[in-house]
Specification:
Elements: E1 2-7, H1 9-16, E2 22-24, H2 28-40, E3 44-50, H3 51-56, H4 58-67, E4 72-76, H5 88-96
Parallel strand pairs: 1-2, 1-3, 3-4
């Protein structure tokens, strides 16, 4: 079981220095292809995707996060986002349509 990263060039390069494979995605199409490739490989236990790339394919990412249990998809901020991550409460509210 291993990690796999999808994101901008700096993020993928940084993770590759620790031996984590990944794919650079800069467009909606490349993000969709990268996610498909990552999900097809059953050795990937955790897929790390930068928030900006996940936003390019938000519907696919959210549908997978809320309907599947494996592999785990984790969204992280990239260098350009200033370290700001997505609000988990808002994510849950959007998913269930109820304000908590």
């Amino acid at each position: 079981m291993r990690y796999f990263v999808i994101g901008d060039e700096d993020t993928v390069l940084g993770f590759s220095l620790s031996g984590t494979p990944g794919i650079i995605a800069t467009t909606r199409e490349s993000a969709q292809d990268a996610l498909r490739i990552a999900l097809e490989d059953k050795n990937n236990a955790i897929i790390i995707i930068t928030i900006d790339v996940a936003d390019l394919i938000r519907e696919e990412v959210d549908r997978y996060i809320f309907s599947e249990t494996f592999p785990l998809i984790v969204e992280i901020p990239n260098r350009a986002s200033g370290g700001k991550s997505r609000d988990l409460r808002k994510l849950v509210n959007d998913a269930i349509g109820v304000t908590l």
